[in-house]
Design a protein that fits this description.
lipid metabolism, 8-stranded mixed sheet, globular, alpha/beta, 12 helices, single chain, Phospholipase, patatin family protein, Cytosolic phospholipase A2 catalytic domain
Amino acid sequence: MSGEALSAPRRPRVGLALGSGSARGWAHIGVIQALEDMGIRPDVVAGTSIGALVGAVYVSGQLQAFSDWVTKLTFRDVLGFLDIGFSGGVVKGEKLFNFFSEQHQNPDIESLSQRFATVATDMKMGREVWIQQGSVLDAARASCALPGLFSPFKHEGRWMLDGGLVNPVPVSVCRALGAELVIAVNLNGQLIGRHLTRYDTGSQDLEESDGETPDSENSEPSVWGRVMDYFSSSSDENVEPTPGLFDVIGASVNIMQDRITRSRMAGDPAELNLVPMLEDYAIMDFHRAAQAIEEGRRLVEANRERIEWLLGRL
């Protein structure tokens, strides 16, 4: 044996696949923060829809400030960002992303120290598009155009729809960008048949859903509940309402993404699949960030030994 010191084993290139899932996506923040606490900084980050937005903020070095901001959001704040219109979607998204561009840095993807890509869907061709160039916020916006809810976004001359239509948890993107160990955050598990449970029992449950009593002056009913009531086809409190517009969108998206996720991940599974238990979150519950972030942290901590084993094995 030579006197030369043995080199330390090379750590595998870690990829983080951040899935689609609307308000449940705040769990991505907790996952990333807990991984960083373990000393794990992913080499590759790929995001779809809300995963693209959180991923964009993370790779541009602004996750902590972003986390501080979203945990202070109230349902009134969320409503304030909804530029309602019916041209391609109920929400244009311009007000929200203009705010992001004013409050956050918006570097080009090419300048980042981590590999980063978002997934969008070409509206004309139906093809999966991986955006790996240009500003991080434009890449995120192109991935966040949920059909019926957010208007499509024009990127490089093509109209883009939500990436969750084709690749809800972008494990394949991480692989293509060189990841050897992929940690996937799948927000679409445990959802089928549950998206309406917070509203089926009436307005009282709406107001108690955040742990407040109906008489509390600080009670903040779900944004989704307020808007759902507006779009419901029944106004009679004594009659169970038929599914409203957002019920149909929410159920359809959940079913579609669950089926696509199962199919894609069966063919290309991640080494670790994290599934936040946030089945009571409705599609617009963005004001409930604290609980989702904590769930993301809990998942990583619960899988700490497995993560360390995977890092040492590969």
